[in-house]
Amino acid sequence: MALVGAFEAKTHLADLLDRVSRGEKITITRHGIPAAMLVPVEETRTRMTYKEIVEGMRKLRKRIKPGKMSVRQMVEEGRRF
Questions:
Q1: What is the 3-state secondary structure (H, E, C) of 11-64?
Q2: Is a pLDDT exceeding 70 seen at residue 38?
Q3: What local confidence, expressed as pLDDT, does residue 43 receive?
């Protein structure tokens, strides 16, 4: 893990981001004391497909039992938040 001063980090940020994107971890120091860390972003989850979304909604609908509230009452209740 590399140590970089705050001034150097400010002046060479683009280069540091390139290094981090290749997997390197960099600690930014202020007067020799660690202040922040640049680390690579974890892999993001892929987006759900349309079919996965619809299937999830169908499963949710089967689990939820309608109560005594009307749709209008549910909408008004949701607007309170």
A1: HCHHHHHHHHHCCCCEEEEECCEEEEEECCCCCCCCCCCHHHHHHHHHHHHHHC
A2: yes
A3: 64
